[in-house]
Amino acid sequence: MAVAGLSRRKRTMAVDSHSEELDDRPAYLKFFPNSSIVVKDTHLGVLLGRNWISRRIAYTNEVIAFAKVGEQTLLDVIPLADVTSIEPMQNSEPKDTENSPSENAFEIAVDNFNAMQIRTKKDGYNAGRKYHLQASSAEELADILSELRLLTTTAVRRAETNSKWSKLQERFRLVYNSSWFQGIAAFLIIANFVVSVAEAQIDPLRLQLPDGSPTFIKRNLDLLNVAFTVIFTFELLANLFSNWLQPFLSNSWSVFDAIIVSMSLIVLGPLDFPVSILRALRVVGLL
User: Fold this and answer.
1) From the CB of residue 10, how many other CB atoms can be counted at a distance below 10 Å?
2) First to last CA, the chain
3) Transmembrane residues, as ranges (predicted)?
4) Omega of the bond prior to 245 within 30 degrees of 0, cis?
5) Which residue in 99, 196, 248, 263 has the fewest CB atoms around it within 10 Å?
6) Each residue of 245-280: pLDDT tens digit?
7) Contact 239/9 with Cβ under 8 angstroms?
């Protein structure tokens, strides 16, 4: 019974994980940003080949988004956390570079006035691609450089923090989904139910003294109930942390477990509720 329930639980979690992988890109990598979150929405030249093409450029706290002028369809996007540098390009007039051995020949083959270069991570979303943007004036270029550098610094720091959190979360997930952890959880659920059955078979006179105080057996049964509740609470927290938040809420067994644990915690207080019913419901999760 426990093995079958454990398998079903793991299959449910596997299906949820697979559905996430179908398109796990955040919205800012799929759609042009909404005006409510845009820091600046302007028109800049984008170097395509040897020509500056006017494009709509909007940047937020997360990305630099590209679209055709007057349109909303996303053409390209640069996650700011993947930007390694944003530097102004040296002003120069177009020159004939057909016979030039310079590695930066493309930079002098076009008008580079009021232009900047954005470099991205080789292992990032843009695979190390370089972007060249041209402002309409030196003042606009200076403003955009200042804003983008500040936003990029903040985004990189935020990504580093999120990366540490994600790594810790992944470690918890591996432990939580492991066979040995789920096996221990199943054993404790069954043990909790067995204790409940045993308690139901004990003569009520052996659980309470004539003065109304609990007997030694009753006190130990209550301690076991508290211990099981604490253990299952930590198990629920481990599940919640490992699968925060949508994967947890989309798993019906996780939500069911959360309800049972919450009710168990309430029972520890002044509310009178049959504990045996909660234990029986918890075993249902293994069926």
Assistant:
1) 14
2) 6
3) 180-202, 223-241, 253-273
4) yes
5) 99
6) 888 999 998 998 898 888 888 877 765 556 556 666
7) no
Structure letter (DSSP) for residue 88: E
Distance, CA of 137 to CA of 140 (rounded, Å): 5
Query: CA separation (Å) from 165 to 72, 75, 79, 152?
Result: 33, 31, 19, 20
User: What's the CA gap between 287 and 285, in Å, rounded?
Assistant: 6
Query: Looking at residues 234-252, what average pLDDT do you find?
Result: 91
Beta strands in 188-264 (DSSP E): none
- Stated as kind and residue range, the H or E segment containing 46 is strand 40-48
Average pLDDT over residues 184-206: 87
Domains and CATH numbers, the chain: 2-19+178-284 (1.20.120.350), 31-162 (2.30.29.30)
Alpha helix ranges (H) inside 40-137: 105-108
Give the C-alpha separation, 241 to 258, whole Å: 13
Report residue 274 as tokens.
């049959």
Locate 195 and state its tokens.
Answer: 């204790």
Q: What amino acid occupies position 273?
A: F
